[in-house]
Amino acid sequence: MLVLPATVTLREARDAQRMLSQALQQEAQSKAHESLVMIDASGLQQFDSSALAVLLECQRLASGWGKGFAVRNAPKKLAELARLYGVDVLLMPPDDQAA
């Protein structure tokens, strides 16, 4: 399971995306038998819509490798923001969307 950093705003988005993309690639290669990539967002404290852009890019990469994608333990405000933008169904499993 990958972990989001504590802060993902426009300022940190590029670095967060680079870090997660590299980790995703390593995870996809080392765990080829697993069909789901998960990101733990429980440590996320400061964020804006850039965090959604980062997560959507991770979802796109996972999909390109034939893997499912899910964000777990999303802070309530992140889940609400994802719902507002209509991307909650792409990022969060139904049981985490209610959070």
From TrEMBL:
Signal peptide position in this chain? Answer: none
For this protein, the record's InterPro entries field holds: MlaB-like_STAS, STAS_dom, STAS_dom_sf
Domain STAS span(s) in chain numbering: 1-99
What's a Pfam family in this record? STAS_2
- According to the lineage, what is the superkingdom? Bacteria
The record's section on Gene3D superfamilies has: STAS domain
- Protein name, as recorded: STAS domain-containing protein
Which species does the entry assign this protein to? Piscinibacter gummiphilus
- State the organism's lineage: Bacteria, Pseudomonadati, Pseudomonadota, Betaproteobacteria, Burkholderiales
